[in-house]
Amino acid sequence: MTPGDEKFLRRAIELAAEARAGGNPPFGSLLVGPGGDVLAEERNTSLTEADITAHPELKLARWAARELDPAAAAGTTMYTSCQPCGMCAGAIERSGLGRVVFALSTDQLGGLKPQAAPSSFRQEGPALFDEARVPVEGYYL
């Protein structure tokens, strides 16, 4: 962890505080280019926008996928107040960002909030492999 990393993590924590002050869950993130320039900042807005996907990490990953070419995206670092959730981690991976630096781990966050209820939806599958593979086969070549 460099002094620069710590500076940007502190900004992510400030953004988290701003999100909370604005009535949202306390999460903030910023995307920094290879030269140390801040490319974009986001706060969680899931409550005020009534959008369960409005996590700052997801919003930045979407921005990067739209605005940066793959080489530029690979040179970025996302600084975030908390380790990205599964949804956000998937978006970060797909957007091609090069690095993520986080303050609180998922385990640390879990110690600061009430225990989440177990998942209430059922998943069933896999099924219909021969049919389902037809539109996918060959796409990733």
Strand order of the largest sheet: 2-1-3-4
* Total count of helical runs of at least 4 residues: 6
Written as H for each helix and E for each strand, in order along the chain, the element string is: HEEHHEHEHH
Category by helix and strand content: alpha+beta
Number of strands: 4
Shape: globular
State the helical fraction: 25-40%
Strand count, sense and closure of the main sheet? 4 strands, mixed
Q: What kind of assembly state do the chains in view correspond to?
A: single chain
Distance between the termini: 38 Å
Runs in which pLDDT lies below 50 for 5 or more consecutive residues are none
Strand content: 15-25%
Global mean pLDDT: 95
Query: How big is the Rg?
Result: 17 Å
What is the element layout, followed by pairings?
Blueprint: H1 3-21, E1 28-32, E2 38-43, H2 56-67, H3 70-74, E3 77-82, H4 86-95, E4 99-104, H5 106-110, H6 129-132
Parallel strand pairs: 3-4
Antiparallel strand pairs: 1-2, 1-3
Helix pairs in contact: 2-4
Pfam family, one: dCMP_cyt_deam_1
InterPro entries: CMP_dCMP_dom, Cytidine_deaminase-like
Organism: Microbispora bryophytorum
